[in-house]
Amino acid sequence: QVQLVESGGGLVQAGGSLRLSCAASGRTFSTDAMGWFRQAPGKEREFVAAIRWSGSLPYYADSVKGRFTISRDYAKNTVSLQMNSLKPEDTAVYYCAADPTSTYRNFDSWGQGTQVTVSS
């Protein structure tokens, strides 16, 4: 029900910043919880951040708390992930996802991902 396209990835030095955007379309975007995940080569996909449709009470993985900020813009149908103080361990492909149940357990729509590379 939701189509997602990520953008904004790139190469940045440690300590730098990037802003990822997820363009969403579909009938359920206005009520879906939205999340960001990442996957490094040879590793399992891990949760990064999520936000409910209301935009309240964003939730973050411990590894990114205080550094990343998730937000959504309903007028533009986008979800963003502002990443500050980037570390080499943040290097991964970042995926945007949508969860129609808002439980953060049923993400069923995924983008193709955008590469983030942080050099030391």
Features:
120 residues; mainly beta; 7-stranded mixed beta sheet; 4-stranded antiparallel beta sheet; 0% helix
Description:
- 0% of the residues lie in helices and 52% in strands.
- 34% of the residues are buried.
- The protein is built from no helices and eleven strands.
- Strands 2, 4, 5, 6, 9, 10 and 11 form a seven-stranded mixed beta sheet that branches. It has a four-stranded antiparallel beta sheet with strand order 1-3-8-7, with no helix packed on it.
- By secondary structure, it is mainly beta.
- It starts with a strand and ends with a strand.
Strand composition percent = over 45%
Based on helices, strands and strand pairing, what is the structural class? Answer: mainly beta
Distance between the termini: 39 Å
How many E strands? 11
Globular, elongated, flat, extended or rod-shaped: what is the shape?
globular
By oligomeric state, this entry counts as: single chain
Measured on Cα atoms, how large is the radius of gyration? 13 Å
Helical residue percent? under 10%
Average of pLDDT: 92
The helix count comes to 0
Order of helices and strands: EEEEEEEEEEE
Q: How would a textbook summarize the main sheet?
A: 7 strands, mixed
